[in-house]
Amino acid sequence: MEPEHPVQPVARPKVVLGVSGGIAAYKACELLRRLTESGHDVQVVPTASALHFVGEATWSALSGNRVATEVWDSVHEVPHVRIGQAADLVVVAPATADTLARAAHGLADDLLTNTLLTARCPVVFAPAMHTEMWEHPATRENVATLRRRGAVVIEPATGRLTGTDTGKGRLPDPGEIFETCRRVLARGARAVEPDLAGRHVVVSAGGTREPLDPVRFLGNRSSGKQGYALARTAVARGARVTLVAANTGLPDPAGADVVPVGTAVQLREAVLKAAADADAVVMAAAVADFRPGRYAEGKIKKREGEEPAPVELVRNPDILAEISAERARPGQLVVGFAAETDDVVANGRAKLARKGCDLLVVNEVGERKTFGAEENEALILAADGAETSVPYGPKEALADTVWDLVAARLS
């Protein structure tokens, strides 16, 4: 007897992984592994140059699919058209300066560039090249062209390049490129035209630490995960992202320019500098309200029979109120976060009025709530009186809701 409701196979998202000819091609193997292990159907399209670095057998074994390398292979299936047409996402990693140039100018002299021309799905480029090549005006113009057309071009990382060179141009961590791809796929058709393209956003994350002596500090439980989720989702939506990170220990999100800081004073300096040309500033970091009034140059000793001297506290600068009151540019949006332990809504409304920001994300925190968790829930209050409730779920879902509200106000 046949079952009344036969189980229908679930279609796996189709991803095209383009690999161009750079030394970072070997890192694309890790990206491919993550894509396949998370349930994606991956078609690898390497350029002829890429095959000098990683062979066809490797791509085939890791993807479980035959590798497409030539326009003339299986001509009856019209691969130069069909591969791009069928894709849910095309990601090129690494994307060399040559590949970016050919894509920007609409050239179609191999299977990868033909695929890019026929794709009507979201396209992500993860560039990797020497610093001089990345900074060359021709490359910068090509990147700008691709971004104007709706492609997500991830900013390369800074670090060791080939030989003894160091600088910006390193392929971002494959795990973080995967997270960007995952976020782009999650947005579906909305990702074809990234709504934050051309925007510069600043995000603060983590918790500041205020030193008491060389080994002790006053801090908080913030992990930075919500701020990093905001940075990742902004990159996936096409924004140029500056992430001011305070004591997080998390891997840098692909495509974000990360500025590490320690104290509230350092965070203020970094945020004000980055906000000078920003369209939006999101203050997700847990900034200490107070710091010790005196820093002990040596470790404070425990002495028998003596009670420790009281720790005098002084106020830290109110960064959210400062950037809300003195916008660096007309139309700049400012988003604050309010971590409350009681009277969450009432305290949130009061803080929104007091700080003067455009949006305030209010959530309840505690030893086992929000801090360090992968999930969050919040109420987002707007200065115009609007309220948006975000149910309990992944922090990336809350991040996307924040950017939905920001994008609508920027437009």
Helix tally?
13
For this structure, what is the CATH class of the largest domain?
A: Alpha Beta
Annotation, overall tally of beta strands: 19
Which residues form runs of ≥5 with pLDDT under 50?
A: none
Spatial strand order of the main sheet: 12-11-8-13-16-17-18-19
CATH structural architecture of the largest domain: 3-Layer(aba) Sandwich
Q: Give the amount of beta strand, in percent.
A: 15-25%
**Helix percentage:** 25-40%
Q: Classify the secondary structure makeup into a structural class.
A: alpha/beta
Work out the count of structural domains.
Answer: 2
The H-level CATH homologous superfamily of the largest domain, spelled out, is CoaB-like
- Biggest sheet descriptor: 8 strands, mixed
Instruction: Name the overall outline.
Output: globular
Q: Under CATH, the topology of the largest domain is which? A: Rossmann fold
| Nearest-integer average pLDDT | 90
Give the N-terminus to C-terminus distance in angstroms.
Answer: 58 Å
User: Radius of gyration, rounded?
Assistant: 24 Å
Binding site for CTP: 289, 299, 317-320, 337, 351, 355
Cofactor: FMN; Mg(2+)
Region (Phosphopantothenoylcysteine decarboxylase): 1-200
Pathway: Cofactor biosynthesis; coenzyme A biosynthesis; CoA from (R)-pantothenate: step 2/5; Cofactor biosynthesis; coenzyme A biosynthesis; CoA from (R)-pantothenate: step 3/5
